[in-house]
Design a protein that fits this description.
By secondary structure, the protein is mainly alpha-helical. The protein has 8 helices and 2 strands; from the N terminus they run αββααααααα. It starts with a helix and ends in a 5-residue tail after the last helix. The protein has a two-stranded antiparallel ribbon with strand order 1-2. The longest helix has 25 residues.
Length: 169
């Protein structure tokens, strides 16, 4: 039932349960929702997140990129997930946190399907560092601008990766 709620599977009467294929619209809607939530959260986090935490996230992002350059992509995915979660968590807004968590299964599913081309790691890391650097200087608008641009790029890259793997419908 949870997978059906997350639109990852579809139950058809007298036929069974099937894994759904993500559509361009699914990707657009999730990225649009993430952009709105994370733009707001990044602004709050830019003022509230302790510098030590920002520094730790930045160091992890740099090390994850180094690992990816050696062919190990898992540290990037862990760093990416942590960065976005901690920015959202920094708001202290439980409804915002719950709304962001609602799209996490879809984001993870896209990774499993292969909509995660290596070019995305370098581009995402560049944006993550821009976001964190703006947050470290308490530049709210700069952090929000980088976060919004990041989600626009994520949508573009995801759709391109999906098309190249014949995933998208």
């Amino acid at each position: 039932m949870r997978l059906e709620h997350d639109r990852l599977v579809e139950t058809r009467p007298r036929s069974g349960t099937f894994v759904t294929r993500p559509s361009r619209q699914d990707v657009h809607e999730v990225c649009q929702l993430r952009k709105a939530l994370e733009w707001l959260a990044t602004g709050v986090a830019a003022e509230a997140m302790p510098i030590e935490q920002i520094t730790d996230l930045r160091e992890e992002a740099v090390e994850a990129m180094r690992a990816a350059e050696r062919g190990d992509y898992e540290p990037f995915f862990a760093s990416d997930t942590r960065l976005h979660r901690e920015i959202i968590a920094a708001t202290g807004n439980t409804r915002l946190i719950t709304a962001r968590e609602s799209v996490e299964p879809f984001v993870y599913w896209l990774r499993v399907l292969g909509a995660t081309g290596p070019h995305r790691l370098a581009g995402s890391t560049r944006r993550h560092l821009e976001i964190l650097d703006a947050m470290a200087t308490r530049d709210v608008s700069g952090a929000q601008e980088a976060a919004a641009l990041h989600l626009v790029e994520v949508e573009e890259w995801t759709l391109a990766d999906m098309a190249s793997h014949s995933i998208v419908t």
